[in-house]
Structure formats: structure tokens, C-alpha cells
Design the sequence.
């Protein structure tokens, strides 16, 4: 008789793979660390291969563990979808969702609040990072979907919402500092790339006063009056000033906001949350 993969064991394995340690995974599963360890031992006995490399700082997946993870996520996705469809029960489970900091400050409470109210058995885990870092997490299946930025009109992806990039500062006095000081996100971020591209084309001298994926740090530098920044218009705090065309700064493109997934066929739960985002985001 062929071996059978138990759904409960697979669910525990997936949680451990994402948590990076048995200790971190145990409370998410609602079991003790010893019980979680026993589940993994049982799964390894069924597979006939070690699935985890255990070290002082946690666990990593073996080659067989990596292979099982892809199968396990697909099996659990189809399992949960079947249960929801056949029993008529409401959606349940965990969604791992990525969102850039500036979109989180503007949209996140609206996007999550209504969905969780409608589906009380759903938990949403949020990771905030820049668009390039979110794509990295999607590629590793560390998150299941993310709001990401694209240059509007640059791809065939359908934008859910359009947000213009704008120059911001504490006051116009910052423009008098030479070379022009900039506070920007990661070097591969769209604000960073397009700010430098525009200034280079205009022959304007500049220096990078601050470069980081932390929106909090970036805004602190701008509030000090020591740098300009580039943000989407909706994310600009009320205490900072948008520098319009009269200040002769380079024009910036508009960004499209779209959804990226970690797999071609997302689970029913992830697809439902994505549909909710598409319906709500244009109205916020």
C-alpha cells in the first residue's frame, strides 16, 4: 500500500518552512515544540528522507524538503479550496501579504479591515518592504501575494490604481542646498531610479543623503530639512510640502499599483483576497 501524506503533517511542515524554526512555528500551529518535532519526525518517516537541517539558529530545508514544500503548498491549497466549495463553509486560513510601506500607511487598514470582518476565520500576516524586496519574497514563496509598483504604461499588467510620483520637502529652502540632497528608497526602487534619471537628464548636481527601504527613516530626514524625497502623492504626510512644476524639478512618472502572486494558480483564499483588493483599492 503506498504511503499517504497527512494534511495535518503537511500544514505543520509548511508553517515551519516559513517560520524558520520549530520554536517560532509551534504557537502558530497551536502545539508544543515537542509535538511539532514529533510531527516532522513522522513526516520524514513517511517520505523516507530528512526534510530539515537543524542548526543553532533554526532550521533550513534539505533538498528533499524544498521539493516537498512546493507539493505541500499546492496540496493544501487544493484541499482548502475543496472543503470551502463542498461544505459551504466560509473562508479560513492564513494569507501572507506583502505591501510597500507607503501603501501600507495609505491603504492597509481599509484593505484588511473589511475582508477580515467578512471572513473572521482568516488571518492576514503582513510584510512591509519595497517592491523589489517583495518580488524576492514572492519568488521564494515567503509571501503569497503583494501590492507592487510598476511604471504606468510600461507593461501589459493591469493597474488597479494610478499614483503620481512627486517631489517633497519640508520647505522650498531645501532646494537651495548644493548639491541637491536626496532621501530615497533602495537603489533599485522606482522612486530612486526615476529621481536620479531625471536629475541626470537635467544636468542637476545631487548627492544621496539617505538611502533605505525604511519609510520612517526617509521621512525623518526630509522633516529635518536636509533632503528632498520622492513619494506617491497619496503617501505624502500633511506636514511636508509637494514641490510642483514652478520649482523646475524634473518631471516624474506615475506608478501603477498591481497585485503580484507567488504562483500562477493562487488558492481560493488568496484569490478571494485579491478580488477584494481590486474592488476596494480604487475607491480609497
Sequence:
Amino acid at each position: 500500500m503506498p504511503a499517504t501524506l497527512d494534511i495535518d503533517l503537511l500544514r505543520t511542515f509548511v508553517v515551519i518552512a516559513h517560520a524558520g524554526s520549530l520554536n517560532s512555528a509551534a504557537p502558530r500551529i497551536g502545539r508544543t515544540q515537542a509535538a511539532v518535532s514529533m510531527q516532522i519526525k513522522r513526516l520524514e518517516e513517511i517520505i523516507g528522507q530528512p526534510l530539515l537541517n537543524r542548526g543553532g539558529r533554526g532550521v533550513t530545508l534539505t533538498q528533499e524538503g524544498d521539493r516537498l514544500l512546493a507539493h505541500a503548498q499546492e496540496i493544501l491549497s487544493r484541499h482548502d479550496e475543496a472543503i470551502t466549495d463542498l461544505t459551504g463553509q466560509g473562508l479560513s486560513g492564513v494569507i501572507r501579504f506583502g505591501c510597500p510601506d507607503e501603501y501600507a500607511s495609505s491603504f492597509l487598514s481599509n484593505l484588511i479591515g473589511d475582508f477580515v470582518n467578512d471572513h473572521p476565520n482568516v488571518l492576514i500576516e503582513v510584510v512591509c518592504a519595497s517592491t523589489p524586496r517583495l518580488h524576492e519574497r514572492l519568488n521564494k514563496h515567503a509571501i503569497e501575494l503583494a501590492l507592487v509598483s510598476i511604471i504606468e504604461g510600461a507593461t501589459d499588467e493591469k493597474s488597479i490604481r494610478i499614483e503620481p510620483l512627486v517631489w517633497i520637502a519640508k520647505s522650498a529652502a531645501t532646494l537651495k542646498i548644493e548639491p541637491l540632497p536626496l532621501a530615497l528608497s533602495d537603489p533599485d526602487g522606482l522612486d530612486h531610479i526615476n529621481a536620479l534619471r531625471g536629475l541626470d537628464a537635467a544636468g542637476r548636481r545631487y548627492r544621496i543623503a539617505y538611502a533605505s527601504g525604511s519609510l520612517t527613516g526617509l521621512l525623518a530626514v526630509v522633516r529635518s530639512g536636509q533632503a528632498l524625497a520622492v513619494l506617491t502623492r497619496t503617501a505624502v504626510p500633511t506636514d511636508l510640502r509637494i514641490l510642483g512644476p514652478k520649482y523646475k524639478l524634473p518631471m516624474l512618472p506615475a506608478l501603477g499599483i498591481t497585485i503580484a502572486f507567488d504562483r500562477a494558480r493562487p488558492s481560493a483564499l488568496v484569490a478571494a483576497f485579491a478580488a477584494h483588493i481590486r474592488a476596494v483599492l480604487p475607491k480609497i
Observations:
- Residues 151 and 255 are 5 Å apart (CA to CA).
- The first helix runs from residue 7 to 19.
- The chain has three domains: 7-86, 90-156+257-283, 162-255.
